[in-house]
From TrEMBL:
Organism: Victivallis lenta
Alphabetical list of NCBIfam families matching this protein: PRK05472.2-3 (NF003994), PRK05472.2-4 (NF003995), PRK05472.2-5 (NF003996)
Binding site for NAD(+): G95, T96, G97, H98, L99, G100
SUPFAM superfamilies named among the record's database cross-references: NAD(P)-binding Rossmann-fold domains, Winged helix' DNA-binding domain
InterPro entries referenced in this protein's UniProt entry, alphabetically: CoA-bd (IPR003781), NAD(P)-bd_dom_sf (IPR036291), Rex_DNA-bd_C_dom (IPR009718), Tscrpt_rep_Rex (IPR022876), WH-like_DNA-bd_sf (IPR036388), WH_DNA-bd_sf (IPR036390)
A GO term for molecular function: DNA binding
Residue ranges occupied by any CoA-binding domain in the UniProt entry: 85-185
Gene: rex
Protein's recorded name: Redox-sensing transcriptional repressor Rex
Length: 225
């Protein structure tokens, strides 16, 4: 007989991506003194339908009461626990150029429970360098600081041609999850968790949609003439 416990749980990626938006909305409601949130209210805020809201929240084990909805505070708690954002995830960032510097200055990561505690760049890095109050070290320091501070997550912001080599060194140092902002697709052992930010890909989708929309508008214009 199959052992259900051994089956990995499968989550919907779009649903996972919506969870931060629920959290943001619930925190707004909490700040406004609201104790409950119904699925239609959350659905309106997220521009989705109420059935999807119920399904998404079921995924994290939350159930609302008929007519009353979800209790705001326990739901925030459940979302933060599910996302692992209750205790800040400490991360290192590598590559303090344009993008890395911008990320280091982004205060919003604190809301995701992400704390970038140090950054690295290729040496030599002058002693006591700070970028947005985050200390910056020579990348040669990365392995021993990763081990000493038991950091498991790293943010990769080096140029594309350095990405593979830097990522391999991250893995050797004990990093288990890499948030890859470079355009390079990393070749790493299967068990290394990686998430690629694809600004170029997202922009391609936007551009193609805009081009289609403009063709539709032009088409309408022609019909009217
Ligand atoms: N994900 C996206 O959609 C997106 C969008 C914009 C930029 N990017 C990517 O982000 C990356 C960084 O872009 P940028 O504009 O900040 O570049 P940048 O040149 O301004 O910064 C790169 C930094 O990495 C450092 N670096 C280079 N080699 C290194 C190494 N071996 N070890 C440690 N540090 C090293 C450099 O000294 C520099 O400070 C690039 O890969 C770029 O393609 C991605």
């Amino acid at each position: 007989m199959e052992n259900d416990m051994a089956k990995p749980q499968v989550f919907s990626i779009p649903a996972l991506k919506r969870l931060p938006a629920y959290l943001r909305e619930l925190k707004k409601l909490q700040a406004a003194g609201r104790l409950h949130a119904t699925s239609p209210v959350l659905a309106r805020a997220l521009r989705i339908d109420a059935i999807s809201v119920r399904k998404d929240l079921e995924m994290i084990g939350a159930a609302g009461s008929p007519g009353v909805g979800y209790q705001v505070e326990p739901l925030i708690d459940a979302l933060e626990s599910f996302l692992g954002w209750k205790n800040a995830s400490e991360a290192f960032l590598v590559g303090t150029g344009h993008l890395g510097t911008a990320l280091l200055g982004y205060r919003g990561f604190a809301d995701y429970g992400l704390k970038i505690i140090a950054a690295f760049d290729k040496g030599p890095v002058p002693k006591d360098t700070l970028v947005h109050d985050v200390p910056v070290f020579d990348f040669a320091e990365f392995p021993h600081l990763t081990r000493r501070l038991q950091i498991r997550m790293a943010i990769l912001c080096v140029p594309d041609d350095a990405a593979q080599e830097v990522a391999e060194k991250m893995v050797e140092a004990g990093i288990l999850a890499i948030w890859n902002f470079t355009g390079h697709t990393l070749l790493l052992p299967e068990d290394i968790i990686r998430q690629k930010v694809n600004l170029a890909g997202d922009f391609a989708v936007l551009s193609v949609k805009l081009a289609r929309r403009l063709r539709e508008i032009d088409g309408c214009g022609e019909d009217k003439q």
